[in-house]
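Progress report, Aim 2. The chain analyzed during this reporting quarter is listed below.
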Amino acid sequence: MAKIEEAKQMKLTILGSGTYQPELKRHSSAYLLEVGKEKICFDFGRGATDQLLKLDIRITEIDALFISHWHGDHVADLIALLHYTTAPLSNDVSLLRPIRTKPLKIYGPKGTVENIRAFLNIIRYGKNELANLEVEELSEDEIGSNHWTVHSYLTDHKPNALCFRLEAENKIFAYSGDTLESEGLKKAIKNANLAIIEAGWPEEINPKTHMTGQKAGRIAQEQNVEKLILTHMSPLYLKNFDPAQDAQKHFRGEIILAKDLMKFEI
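Predicted structure tokens for the chain:
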């Protein structure tokens, strides 16, 4: 595992715990992990930029972004991130905004480069160069820095969708993205100190592309997860059912229902 040189823990902030359905108190999927002085986002859905502002974190401070898949509720605020990151600087403008000192690294599934170029084509009036960006497409891969290592695994939601496992300082953080039960998900969350697993719908709905509280609890228990955060729950699920109670039917560890701006130390 990569070793953190400047901190002995990872810090997680939930920027968005919701779904594609607009809610005032829950924004779409986005998670900030601080590893030492590095700031890494997993997905960047609606409201992510506003949440960073609430935390007094500038967009230019984000070092890397991992995209699980290209559904709108996981990438909606990428437009704002790309616009600010790639906008050309004049002498006057440079005095008004902080300048990124190194390229923003973006990792995502197959199609990520093409999709980012399409976004840039819109926000930069037909110019789609990857200015100030380093973009890499992942499948079953390992990405690392001096402080952390991320393993990506294919999972079962849409073609090429990914889940992630970050290792640092003998700690493991895992993020499911959107998924059904899969071998990739099992590998990502195995022995995780903290795993964020989506639980979009109750068993009664019998979802075909998402997890339920029961399924999340069972797979977390089977893979020896220490702490389970359930996220991406539909308003219907939260209003009419109890996702935590569903997960407790199988999982024996701590269960938390994700809320925006919750913070955790790992």
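The CA atoms of residues 83 and 123 lie 6 Å apart. The chain has a mean pLDDT of 92. These observations will guide the mutagenesis work planned for the next reporting period.
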